[in-house]
Amino acid sequence: MQFSIDSNLNRIAEKVEAGDRLSFEEGLELYATSDLNALGKLADHVRRKKHGLTTFFNVNRHFNHTNICVADCKFCNFYRRSRDADAYTHSIEEGVEIARNAVSEGATELHIVGGLNTKLPFEYYTGLFSALKQNFPSLHVKALTMVELDFMARFYKMPDEELIEKLKAAGMDSCPGGGAEIFAEPTRSRICDHKCGGDRWLELAGKCHAAGVKTNATILYGHIESIEDRVDHLVKLREQQDKSGGFQCFIPLAFYPPDSALSSLPGPDGVASLKTIAISRLMLDNFDHIKAYWVMLGKHLAQVALHFGANDLDGTITDGGELTEAYSIENGEVKMTRQQLIALIENAGFEAVERDTVYNRVDRAIVS
Ligand code: V47
Fold first, then answer.
1. pTM for the predicted model, two decimal places
2. Mutation pick for ligand 1 pocket among 253, 289, 359 (CB with most ligand atoms within 8 Å)
């Protein structure tokens, strides 16, 4: 039986088997295929060679310290202006209480992101991180996207290196992958023209890596972007990873339209999501981990994504942050127990392995 009815896919499969890097044009060919099964099989083959049946998950909690933001990204339904009745900023004490609750439920990571808020002094961030570290020394603080770092460097007038060092010294252990959206212009300016450009996002990721701070990377797909934009995004991330090597994982984020300025769009369908997961695995040959984010994919499609190249399922998210609730396709639901997550992974035919943020195995004496 031939591998695929698509001759391009057969040729690409031979390159993948030989360990050869795929080109931008081959990325386009992968998106153009109608042989979804063969594409998935190819990505699954690479995933199994790297990770066998292991599927990682972690026990984490999101904390969105503020929803006040000076940007107005067209896809975002979370941000508010400071005058809005439902604008909020959590105090450091509230942050510590949320972390206390998360730790008591077994969280090993606190994922902190928020709006670009001009009312907050720099000491808010250093104070928050050091209070978290003082109270919970072993809790991993995964905080601030490259977009937030860019805003802070400009707003607090600090060189990037100094900013990163100060945040790291206060307790920032690694950075999440948000804010990447789509690097290519003019799409990026159309959806988020107040945010830093794609080159700046990549530059800051490189500077974090140079400072020993690992980061993640994302793509936001299924809105106004073209297929060329998606492949360009992957190629740029791959080039940056060649240079600085500090990306831990890649997370494709499925656009969720309700209540955003792009709410008339349908959002991506299942085929677009599965193709994007599989093509990420195939194009990003220098990324170890591809994460399926169930909050945006939905639990069932996230299970299928594990057969299309994903080797990580995020996460229990214990009690979600407000941002996560805003775009959860599971009717605003953002919470899954450890056991529910393990069942999703095992029922998909994989072995669930709990990890910490930097992909060390977590062995729990008491399984709850
Ligand atoms: O940058 C915003 C996206 C991101 C919508 O690093 C939306 O482990 C879909 O980056 N529909 C933030 N997506 C979330 C994020 C993330 C999530 C989970 C794990 C990690 C990690 C990072 O959410 C934003 C933006 O790209 N987003 N609005 C929306 N309506």
1. 0.96
2. 253
